[in-house]
Amino acid sequence: MLSRWRAALIGVLALAAALAAGHLVAGFVGVNASPYLAVGNGAIDLTPVWLKDFAVRTFGTYDKLVLLSGMAVVMVVVAAVAGLLSRRTPVPGLVVITGFGLVGLAAVYARPDLDAVALLAPLASLVTGAGTFAFLHRLDVAPDTSRRTVLLAGVAAGAGLAGLGGQLLAGRRDAASSREAVGRLVPARTAPMIPADADFAKLGTPPFLTRNDRFYRVDTALTVPQVRAEDWSLRLHGLVDREIRYRYADIRNRPLVERTITMTCVSNEVGGTYVSTANFVGVDLADLLDEAGVRPGAEQLFSSSVDGWTSGSPIAAVMDSSRGAMLAIGMNGEPLPIEHGFPARLVIPGLYGYVSATKWVTDLEVTTWAARQAYWLKRGWGREAPIKTQSRIDTPKGFETVSSGKVRVTGIAWAQHTGIAKVELRMDNGPWREAMLSAEVNVETWRMWWLEFDVAPGGHQVVCRATDKRGYTQTETRAGTVPDGATGWHSIAFTAR
Ligand SMILES: Nc1nc2c(c(=O)[nH]1)N[C@H]1C(S)=C(S)[C@@H](COP(=O)(O)O)O[C@H]1N2
Ligand SMILES: [Mo]
């Protein structure tokens, strides 16, 4: 009979060997075929809306790291238990490992972005895991301990090397070098200069343009899709007179336009950070659709990403020239960052990202609402999702302590495609007072504001609300982010000393 810790060790080593073998094969057939990542991606797609929302709110950009770490802990525990159950005979451990293997196979099989050859990765995991377990088990019942130790260490080292090899192979095909080769994108029509009084960054607001590495990021991709520009193409089809396929050079060689646009995520809570602004460079989506010739009856532009994620945008919004929907390839003077959709993405001003901003986009289908249902629509989010008028207090920070006397409150407000008319603040249930607004860049972008109050020592609460150019004032009624965006006033408490 095996000692307890040896039995557990054998379980964990077999798991490591299995994952490493799968990862190595995935290095050849596509990184997302790695069974570990495929299970994680599957878990994300199966996650109920409330839990996804909770994860995004609680862990922010780290939600995926939390998921992967959680999975690792669960797997190590189960593998150790499988080993412990196998002290006499390897059968229980083999059953558990086969179960793991089948979950991996199912997860890879279910991925819309993977083909049959990808199944080789989880198969390699299954065979290696079971084989390693049986082998180590037989070995461990044998008496020669020094040979045994060497072999155990060998398995551990082999697993490490195979995993690393998979990582390197996957990296060989990454998109970073392709992105570098694109070089600078020079728009034929640049966006108007951002005036100096477009933000109050010196007073506490964010800068008007968000740096690429500070731009909020939300997507379902566990590993950032790596698409090389030279491999990329965009298929435009469906209810059109002629199907067209665009290559990267086709897009890049067109006269490029640049537009300043504020994007917002539907998962942004009142006071949240999922709102950012950039200069996007690309072409008019409407021009591409005109080339294809949109047929009568078209309602929806159904876009797909290389990783299988999908989005449905109203054709009317895409074709509305006052809105300027884009196929974007650049952001703030650079090619799109890989995590923001390199080589190309959609940006449709005024609509929440999940119905307007497909990253790594490879397919555009002109269709009806009845024919296709996009990723988040199937999961209970709204079909029409115009961005709601909102405002946020940036300083003071919640629960900050400031000096009493003159206290300056600063923040931002947005009402894309309508424009902000005014922002009002109320201190400690006093009268509403109108804040100073920054210069308006265009109605598709946020505006900054500030206002000074005379504040006595003690605790205080300040509330903001925006009114847009259609005359709508933000409702006080709190609504959650599901199904089409949060409402309510942002308020913060602070102390004056
Ligand atoms: N391929 C893909 N594109 C996507 C998503 C996604 O999950 N996958 N998420 C969308 C959502 S919900 C938002 S809010 C925006 C965010 O874009 P950003 O990460 O560049 O800020 O991308 C959209 N495009
Ligand atoms: Mo979003």
From TrEMBL:
<feature type="transmembrane region" description="Helical">
    <location>
        <begin position="149"/>
        <end position="170"/>
    </location>
</feature>
<feature type="transmembrane region" description="Helical">
    <location>
        <begin position="65"/>
        <end position="84"/>
    </location>
</feature>
<dbReference type="GO" id="GO:0020037">
    <property type="term" value="F:heme binding"/>
</dbReference>
<keyword id="KW-1133">Transmembrane helix</keyword>
<protein>
    <submittedName>
        <fullName>DMSO/TMAO reductase YedYZ, molybdopterin-dependent catalytic subunit</fullName>
    </submittedName>
</protein>
<feature type="transmembrane region" description="Helical">
    <location>
        <begin position="116"/>
        <end position="137"/>
    </location>
</feature>
<feature type="transmembrane region" description="Helical">
    <location>
        <begin position="91"/>
        <end position="110"/>
    </location>
</feature>
<dbReference type="InterPro" id="IPR014756">
    <property type="entry name" value="Ig_E-set"/>
</dbReference>
<dbReference type="InterPro" id="IPR000572">
    <property type="entry name" value="OxRdtase_Mopterin-bd_dom"/>
</dbReference>
<keyword id="KW-0472">Membrane</keyword>
<feature type="domain" description="Oxidoreductase molybdopterin-binding">
    <location>
        <begin position="222"/>
        <end position="375"/>
    </location>
</feature>
<dbReference type="InterPro" id="IPR036374">
    <property type="entry name" value="OxRdtase_Mopterin-bd_sf"/>
</dbReference>
<dbReference type="GO" id="GO:0006790">
    <property type="term" value="P:sulfur compound metabolic process"/>
</dbReference>
<dbReference type="Pfam" id="PF00174">
    <property type="entry name" value="Oxidored_molyb"/>
</dbReference>
<dbReference type="GO" id="GO:0043546">
    <property type="term" value="F:molybdopterin cofactor binding"/>
</dbReference>
<dbReference type="GO" id="GO:0008482">
    <property type="term" value="F:sulfite oxidase activity"/>
</dbReference>
<keyword id="KW-0812">Transmembrane</keyword>
